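Section 4.2 – Deliverable D4.2 (structural model, holo form)

The reporting period included a commitment to supply a predicted holo structure for the target in complex with nicotinamide-adenine-dinucleotide. Inputs used:
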Amino acid sequence: LQQVRPAPHSTDFQNPRNFSMIIVTGGCGFIGANFILDWLRQSDEPIINVDKLTYAGNPATLASLQGDARYHFVQGDIGDSALFDRLLMQNPRAVINFAAESHVDRSIHGPADFIETNVSGTFRLLESVRAHWQGLDDAAKSAFRFLHVSTDEVYGTLTDTDPAFSETTPYAPNSPYSASKAASDHLVRAWHHTYGLPVLTTNCSNNYGPYQFPEKLIPLILLNAVAGKPLPIYGDGLNVRDWLYVTDHCSAIRRVLEAGKVGETYNIGGCNEKTNLDVVHTLCAMLDELKPRANGRYADQITFVKDRPGHDRRYAIDARKIERELGWKPAETFETGIRKTVQWYLDNADWVANVQTGAYREWVQTQYQEAPACASASAPASA
Ligand code: NAD
Ligand code: DAU
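Output (C-alpha cells):
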C-alpha cells in the first residue's frame, strides 16, 4: 500500500518526452478506480491520479497497480491550484474530473463539504486547467480535453409518466448534492462559452458494481444481508432508479473523450428502471441462491425506515444521443451486471473489511438511528 501511496503532494512523475498521458481526479473512489483499472487493461497510456483520500477514497482498490510504471498517484485536493499548476506541466492531453462528494444522505447531514469540493474545487480546477490550456500551442490547444463527470440528479425528479431525462431537460436539482453538481456543470459550461476551454460533460444514472463504498444502496444491502442485519428501505420503496454497471459507464466516458463534440453534454444510462424494492428483492433472491441462510430467506430482513428528506421519486435516462452520435451502448444487462456484483462482494471480504473503518461505522450509526424502522418483514436470523 505504501508504494501506491507516496508522500502527499508527490509530483515525482516526469514526462520529459511529452508522451501522451492523462490526469484523473478522484481515482480512488468507486467509478474513478474502475475507470483507471479499465483504462490500463486496454491501453499503455499513463495516468496520474489525484485524489484527496476522503472517507470514500480507497487506494487499496488500486493495489494491483503497485509498481506499474503507467500509474502514478498523488494525494491532493482538486482545489489546490499550486499542485495542479505543477502537475499540468507534465502536459496531459486530458483531465477527467471524477472527484466529488457523492452521497446524497451525507449532503443532507452536512452540505458544506459538497459546496467546497463540488463547487469551489471544480472552480479552482477549471482555473488551473484554463491557465495551462491558454499557454499551449494551437495544435495542443485543440487536442486538449477537460471531461467533467456528472450525474442525472441535476435534472431533478420525474413522475411515473414523464419522459426520461434528455440533454435538453432543464436543470432542477433537489438535494444539496445535486445542487452542487448542477453548479459545477454550469461552471464547466461557462468556462467553455467564455474562455473556449474544450470541455465535455457526462450526466450518468446510478452506477453499481465492484468497489462501491457500502453507504450506497446495493453494497449496503448486500453487506447487511450477509451480516444478518436489517435491510433499510426508505419510505415505500417505490422510488425508481435507472441502473448502469460501472464498466459500462467507464466505456461511455472513454468514448466521449475519444469522439465527443467539444462543449456538448452526453446522458449515459442503462435503460434499467427499477424500484428500490425490486432491486432489494433481486439481491435477496441472488443471495438465497449463492449463499443461503441457515434458515429463512434474506427478504425476511427487509425493514422500511423513515424516508430521505426531499427524496427524488424517479430517475430515467434517455441515452439515445450518445448511442446515435458516438455509437455507445451498455454491454451488461441488469441481470448480468447484478450477478457479477453480488459474486464480487461475496468473494472480496478483505476489501469490504478494509473500508468498514471506524468512520464508516459512525456514519451508519448516525444515518440509521435517525431513520427508525417503520415495519419489518420479520426478525433476521443469522446467516
Ligand atoms: P466516490 O464518493 O466513490 O469517490 C469520490 C472520490 O473523490 C474519492 O476517492 C474521494 O477521495 C475523492 N475526492 C473527494 N473530494 C476530493 C477533492 N476535493 N479533491 C480530490 N479528490 C477528492 O464517488 P463515485 O461514486 O466514484 O462518483 C465519481 C463521480 O461520478 C462523482 O463526480 C459523482 O458525482 C459522479 N457520478 C456518480 C454516480 C454513481 O452512481 N455513483 C452516477 C453518476 C455520476
Ligand atoms: O443517479 C446518480 C446518483 O446515484 C449519483 O449521482 C450519486 O452519486 C449516487 O450516490 C446515486 O444517488 P442515489 O441517491 O440514487 O443513490 P443511493 O445508493 O444513495 O440510493 C439509491 C436509492 O435507494 C434511493 O432511492 C435511496 C434508496 N435507499 C438508499 C439507501 C442508502 C434506501 O432505500 N435505503 C438506503 O439505506
